[in-house]
C-alpha cells in the first residue's frame, strides 16, 4: 500500500539516513536487497522511505506485492538525492583531510628581508617531507602580516621577532648576526673585529620606513651610541638596491648574514666586515595565532624547519620541549 503523503506545503528537511534508504531502493528496486546493501533492517529501511515521502509531500515509489517501481517524481528526486549524498561524502572526506596533519592549504606570510634567503629551504622541506601540503606564500611587511594573521587571511608567519603583538605565539627558529657591507676600499672592509662604536659616524644606508630590518638596524646604532641627529640616508625599498648603493660609494649598510651570499657574492665593488663578539643580531621565528587549531602541526613544522636550516650561517634555536 502506498504511503500517504502530507498535504501540499513546504517540505520538511529530510535526513541523510532517509536519503540513503531511498537511493538504495531506487538502485535495487527491492526492499530486502536495498536493506542488505546499506546494512539496515528491512523494516527500518521501509520506514525511512515512508518518512521521506511524508517529509517531502511526494510519493516516490509504487509498491506492489511483487516489485517496487519509482514514481515519475521518484525518478527525478533519486537523481537529486544521489547528488546530495555524494556532496555529503565529499564533505566527510574534506573533514578527514583537515584532521590529517600537513594536508590542505597553509598560507605562509614572509617578510621581504627573509623571503629570498630562506624560502628555498622552506620550499624544499615542504616538497620532500610534506608533499600533500598546499603551501601558499605571501610576501608582505610585518604590519600587514600581523593584520592578515589576526583576521585569518594568513595561517603562519616567518619574520623577525620579538613582535610584542597580543594573541600571537612566537616559535623561534634561529639567531643570525648582522654584517657590515662597505665599498671595496673602505677602511672597515675585511675586518673581523669591528666594534659597534664604529657605527656612530658612518654614512649609513637603510631600507625605507615600514621594514623591520630598518628598525633593527637603528636599534643597533642606538646601542652603539649613535645619536638621533646623525643623518641616515634612506634610499632603498629592498636589500638588492641597498647593496648597489653601497657598491656605488654612497655609504655602508647592515645585512643579515643569510642575505650575504645572495646580495654580495657577484659584486667586486663590495667588502664585508664582521663585528666583534657579541655581534649585533636578529632573531627569526614562526608566528601563529594563540590557540590556533593547527598548533601541534605548526610546532612540528617549526621543529622540522630548524633542522633544515642548520646548514645556513645561523645559530639554530633550542626547543623548549
UniProtKB/TrEMBL annotation:
<dbReference type="GO" id="GO:0032993">
    <property type="term" value="C:protein-DNA complex"/>
</dbReference>
<protein>
    <recommendedName>
        <fullName>Probable hydrogen peroxide-inducible genes activator</fullName>
    </recommendedName>
</protein>
<comment type="similarity">
    <text>Belongs to the LysR transcriptional regulatory family.</text>
</comment>
<keyword id="KW-0010">Activator</keyword>
<dbReference type="InterPro" id="IPR036390">
    <property type="entry name" value="WH_DNA-bd_sf"/>
</dbReference>
<dbReference type="InterPro" id="IPR036388">
    <property type="entry name" value="WH-like_DNA-bd_sf"/>
</dbReference>
<feature type="domain" description="HTH lysR-type">
    <location>
        <begin position="14"/>
        <end position="71"/>
    </location>
</feature>
<dbReference type="InterPro" id="IPR000847">
    <property type="entry name" value="LysR_HTH_N"/>
</dbReference>
<keyword id="KW-0804">Transcription</keyword>
<dbReference type="GO" id="GO:0003677">
    <property type="term" value="F:DNA binding"/>
</dbReference>
<dbReference type="Pfam" id="PF03466">
    <property type="entry name" value="LysR_substrate"/>
</dbReference>
<keyword id="KW-0805">Transcription regulation</keyword>
<dbReference type="InterPro" id="IPR005119">
    <property type="entry name" value="LysR_subst-bd"/>
</dbReference>
<dbReference type="GO" id="GO:0003700">
    <property type="term" value="F:DNA-binding transcription factor activity"/>
</dbReference>
<dbReference type="Pfam" id="PF00126">
    <property type="entry name" value="HTH_1"/>
</dbReference>
<keyword id="KW-0238">DNA-binding</keyword>
